[in-house]
Write a structure and sequence with these properties.
By secondary structure, the chain is of the alpha+beta class. Helices cover 29% and strands 36% of the residues. The radius of gyration is 20 Å and the shape is elongated. The N and C termini lie far apart (77 Å).
């Protein structure tokens, strides 16, 4: 009985290593965020960076879709501008997926998979997947 249990445990440890990358796919492929505004036609700037040194990484006019690469802990600021309307700034945050939490619980081999998933971005997901803002008219 112990032998079957040990074999099953070894099987899980070996095959769950890097499981987020396998289950979700590599985040080297960007996650698409849908962006809308009322009224449409607002200029959108997506900024990335920290410590006050943010740079624009994507620009579009609403409605649009933004392909963004994920890395845990890295978020984005989204700025909406339209002539005659007030500016709105919102955020996209990066959260760790449940797969990676499980990997952290498996000693040594799970940590190797976790490191692999973290480097590929598979551990992270961007929230929200759809941003819709209402711009207020200024006079």
């Amino acid at each position: 009985m112990k032998r079957k249990y040990s074999f099953f445990l070894l099987f899980l440890v070996l095959f769950l290593s890097g499981c987020a990358d396998l289950a979700k796919g590599s985040r080297l492929v960007p996650q698409t965020i849908r962006i809308d505004s009322i009224p449409s036609g607002a200029n959108v700037n997506i900024l990335s960076g920290s410590w006050g040194r943010k740079e624009t990484i994507f620009k579009c006019q609403t409605p649009c879709h933004a392909p963004l690469k994920t890395h845990y802990g890295e978020g984005f600021s989204v700025r909406f501008d339209k002539e005659g309307y007030g500016t709105v700034i919102t955020n996209i945050i990066s959260k760790e997926s449940g797969w990676c939490f499980i990997e952290k619980l498996i000693p040594i081999i799970g940590w190797i998979g976790y490191a692999s998933d973290e480097m590929s971005g598979a551990c992270s997901t961007l929230i929200p997947r759809h941003i819709k803002v209402i711009l207020e008219k200024q006079e």
